[in-house]
Design goal:
The chain is α+β, with helices and mostly antiparallel strands and 377 residues long. Helices cover 41% and strands 22% of the residues. The protein is built from 10 helices and 13 strands. Strands 1, 2, 3, 4, 5 and 6 form a 6-stranded mixed beta sheet that branches. Strand 2 and strand 3 (47-50) form a beta hairpin. The two termini are 30 Å apart.
Amino acid sequence: MTGSSRPLPPHGRSAGVTRPTPEDALFRHIVAGMRNGVLAIARTGEVALLNEEGYRIFGVEASHDDLGKPVAEVLRAHPDVVRQLLSAFELHMLPNRAEMRLRPSGKVIGYTLAFVKDDAGEVAGVAMFFKDLTRVEQIEERERLRDRLAAVGEMAAAIAHEVKNPLAGIEVMAGLLRRKIPDIPDAQAVLTDIIAEAKMANAIVQEVLEFVRPIRLQVEHTGIAEALHSAVHLADTKVARGGIVVEVKVPEDLPQIQADHHQLTQLFTNLLINAFEAMDGKGRVGITASTMQQDDGGEGREAVRIELQDNGPGMASEVAEHVFDPFYTTKAQGSGLGLAIVRKIVDAHDGQIDLRTVIGGGTLIRVTLPVVAAGSL
């Protein structure tokens, strides 16, 4: 969810000459003494604040001239950090408690981004709050996570083995019984409900398996148009579209990207299913794609941006901030894993996903994927 911080203090080359107040001095002492790194940039991309812990984590030598310099110049060794900061101004929901590996050191940081707003409430900059996940902390945390995922994976496998087969048996036997008593409407209705519930339970089990299973990308040159059209067809087989019109506009010269075609199809299928279920059989979903250059302070990174815009009911902000959380759902029946799987696939491709929605004004989901896979750079 988007955060905010206090207004940027007027200092650095881009600010006017202002006499520091006792409040400013206290603020600077607090930030300087923090055990976490703090980095803030103005909307123009200039460094407004970087504390000592931040310099240490980034492995950059501190200089009094850094304030007011372009962040790409101060952090020239960390283009991934620069790209995250500069692209934040285009996002509505900023990364929270995310992780990033710094190159070439291989150090891992945990970070949160927040908008810095001025007295008028306008976005004046972006702040990054980050922590050095030391080797011991990193290993311990990953071991705990691995143990939790392993336990969930074992549980999911047990569910798949112990539950899926009986569910299939229930479905088959209910179908046979329904054919044997065609002249009893009440029994027919009950058996139809049994079959539907068995299918739903089986689908939930399958989604849990997909979520806990680690993603191993089969990277190949993939066409976005092909993945989108496959997703539209697949979504139609999983949920009733009704009168919803889907319009896909992809330029013919859109470059192929290095990605897992199957995973991208799953990503777009889940997004379409979510839209279809929210729109109640009427409305329009427009899908567009375009190329863009992600700013990292250097030559930049070529990426493809896919936008899915619907004119459905939209959602409240308190719902929007949780839609990508596992097991969160507002539906009477559902696992709450569809959009969590979407985010997992986007993260696996080193991409970004953003959501903008207004109650009664539809929802826009923007997916940005690099043209060249990170491991190929």
